[in-house]
Amino acid sequence: xxxxxxxxxxxxxxxxxxxxxxxxxxxxxxxxxxxxxxxxxxxxxxxxxxxxxxxxxxxxxxxxxxxxxx
Length: 70
Known about the structure:
- By secondary structure, the protein is an alpha+beta fold.
- It has helices at residues 3-11, 16-19, 39-54; strands at 28-32, 58-62.
- It has one domain (11-62).
- Strand 1 (28-32), helix 3 (39-54) and strand 2 (58-62) form a beta-alpha-beta unit.
């Protein structure tokens, strides 16, 4: 089992009251999203970013290129 799988097993499908103590200590956090992110992916990433910033974390959101010229 990879390190990522072990990490995700630790956090996935747990009640919020089990996870909240793990995010109380401010840390540097990077939030990413899938390729060609849609509005749901962006909104979720930015919402999580705002939540974590209110808890005192230093947060960066990284979005992959959309492939569109702009």
